[in-house]
Amino acid sequence: MNFSTLTNKDKGKNNMQGTTAFTNDSVLNTELPQLAQLKFEDLSPAYAQANRYIDLFSTLLLISLLFIIQLQSFYPLSQEVTNVFRFIIWGVAFIGAMSLTYTILADKRKFYALREQDLSYKSGLVFRKTVSQPMLRIQHVELKRGPIDRKVGLAKLQVFSAGGAMHTFEIPGLPLETAETIRQFILDHKDVNHHG
Questions:
Q1: What pTM was computed for the model?
Q2: Range with top average pLDDT, 67-81, 153-167, 170-184
Q3: Predicted pLDDT at 1
Q4: Are 99 and 115 in a shared domain?
Q5: Partner of 27 at 20 to 30 A CA spacing, among 99, 108, 120, 175?
């Protein structure tokens, strides 16, 4: 049957026979759910603290190595090279301070939201983004824990979209119990939708 010639009388006849006609009604902006209505939750405070320590430790380690190279006695450096090393040390200290400041501010802008039908992650200090993944489009979800995550009791949740080899997004800094609960919620939701 050609839909372009389908009359109201024909539509009624099709509906009575158990089939539905194709519809493509307009949706007004005022009818759309607002992103601001999402109830975002903070990441664990231990995540921000661990990031600060990593930045600080990395900067101090690099500065220490440069000082050791500058002061070592096995291969004496010329005055010109020593002056360059001083400049490099100050540069590393400045970059480290800027990186630490950025990390502190950026970690305060990371949130996640879990609803019945989707999972969202919001991040970004300068360039802000919000990623949402419908539960039905989640292929699988992984829980990852590096050595620092294990030390402070945290986990990362990686969400993989259907048809994609790489993860769609990652929610870092979740307490292990919360990450496991969200992962199980997603798996249970997928199981209900596939079998129920």
A1: 0.72
A2: 170-184
A3: 42
A4: no
A5: 120
- What pairing do the DSSP bridges indicate for beta strands 111-114 and 129-134? unpaired
What is the band of 175 on the pLDDT scale with cuts at 50, 70, 90? very high
Closest CA to 173 of 74, 107, 90: 107
Q: What is the mean pLDDT of residues 45-49?
A: 95
The answer on 170 and 152 residing in a single domain is yes
Other beta carbons within 10 Å of 167:
17
CA distances from 42 to 37, 87, 91 (A): 16, 40, 34
DSSP, collapsed to helix, strand or coil, labels residue 123 as strand
The per-residue pLDDT for 2 is 45
Amino acid at 105: L
Characterize 49-76 residue by residue with b for buried, 16 or more Cβ atoms within 10 angstroms of its Cβ, and e for exposed: ebbeeebeeebeebbeebeeeeeeeeee
**Which helix (H) or strand (E) is 24 found in, with range?**
none
Angle subtended at Cα 130 by Cα 127 and Cα 133, rounded to the nearest 5 degrees: 150
61: which 2 tokens?
Answer: 């380690």
Tell me: pLDDT of 108 over 90. yes
**Residues 116, 99 share a domain:** no
